[in-house]
Amino acid sequence: MNREVSELLEKALSLPPEARAALAGSLLESLDDHVDPAAEEEWNREIAQRIQELDSGRVKSIPWADARRQIAAMLNGRSSAQNSPGGAGRSEIRGGLVFGAK
User: Fold this and answer.
1) Residue 92 forms beta bridges with which residues?
2) If DSSP codes are grouped into helix, strand and coil, which group holds residue 2?
3) Strand ranges across the sheet with 59-60
4) Is the pTM of this model over 0.70?
5) Cβ pair 81, 90 in contact under 8 A
6) Alpha helices in 14-87 (DSSP H)
7) How far is CA 86 from each of CA 13, 35, 40, 83, 97, rounded to the nearest angstrom?
8) Could you give phi then psi for residue 62, rounded to 5 degrees?
9) How many angstroms separate the Cα of 97 from the Cα of each of 63, 70, 82, 83?
10) How would you classify the pairing of strands 91-94 and 59-60?
11) What kind and span of H or E run contains 94?
12) Is 99 helix (H, G, I), strand (E, B) or coil?
């Protein structure tokens, strides 16, 4: 990594988390030189379905810290219910997102 890139990285890392996330997203998008229309349409359908599930109350969102614990537990072969506060509740992971059962 050259000096200019190192300095830019240092500045980027000093940004607040939300700004770093936006910057990272923009950088990743800049690498996509080809957009698959079928994949975009499928993602749009998935997003619409998830919004509808949240709006209807069928599923509820959970804090990121809880989601990370549950994902780590699933990857380590343990039940998410065993690792959630109180040991109750079960979440489902779909497409990299965690949905809590209501």
Assistant:
1) 99
2) coil
3) 59-60, 97-101, 91-94
4) no
5) yes
6) 17-31, 37-56, 64-75, 80-83
7) 36, 44, 39, 8, 22
8) -130, 155
9) 12, 11, 19, 17
10) unpaired
11) strand 91-94
12) strand
- Is 91:99 a contact under the CB 8 Å cutoff? yes
Q: What does each C-alpha distance from 8 to 16, 21, 30, 92, 96 come to in angstroms?
A: 15, 15, 17, 38, 30
Report yes or no: 80 and 40 within 8 Å, Cβ to Cβ. no
Beta strands 59-60 and 97-101 are antiparallel
Say how many residues make up the chain: 102
Q: Which of 20, 22, 18 is nearest to 8 (CA)?
A: 20
Q: How many CA atoms lie within 13 A of 60 on its CB side?
A: 7
In degrees and rounded to multiples of 5, residue 25 shows phi and psi of -60, -45
Please report, in tens digits, the pLDDT of each residue of the chain (102 residues total): 899 999 999 999 999 999 999 999 999 989 878 888 999 999 999 999 999 999 999 998 999 999 999 999 999 886 544 444 544 455 666 655 656 655
